[in-house]
Amino acid sequence: HALRSVKPIDPNWIIMWFLHAIPCCSYIVWMAVKQRLNTQDKLLRYGVIQSISCAFCNLPTETHDHIFFSCSYTLNVWLVIVGKLNLQWTPGPWAETITWATQNMKKKRLFPV
Q1: Which member of 48, 54, 66, 111 lies 3.0 to 4.6 Å from 70 by CB, making a disulfide possible if both were Cys?
Q2: Please, what sign has the CA dihedral across residues 12, 16, 20, 23?
Q3: Which residues form the Reverse transcriptase zinc-binding domain (predicted)?
Q4: How many Å is the Cα radius of gyration of the chain?
């Protein structure tokens, strides 16, 4: 520990890194949890694109919150996934959803060994 600093473990690790997790999927989830994905609103700010619209619903906004939970298409995808896992979930802001997922993933195994 003398060569590197020890940081506290991210409490959300359980939704990103778990047994049988596919590394590239875990990486994308990690980027999403940290809100580091290059959504169109960020690309617009960087000057990479000139306008934004959601690829799923064509609304003129593609932010992190929209692409994952506000978009009617992706919201329905999440509702199907949550239903298949027999979980109770009320869609809400990103931070609340991550907290909910972290708490529920501790209780439920997606891939029983």
Answers
A1: 66
A2: negative
A3: 3-78
A4: 16
- Which class for 46: exposed (0-12), middle (13-18), buried (19 or more C-beta within 10 A)? exposed
Question: Quick check: 26 and 16 in contact, CB under 8 A?
Answer: yes
Does 9 reside within a domain? no
Kindly report, residue by residue over 4-53, the tens digit of the pLDDT: 777 766 666 656 666 677 888 788 888 888 888 888 889 999 999 888 88
Residue 49 structural domain: 23-107
Greatest CA separation for the chain: 52
Coil, strand, or helix at residue 103?
helix
Domain count along the chain: 1
* 12 within a domain of the structure (yes/no): no
Question: pTM for the complete prediction?
Answer: 0.65
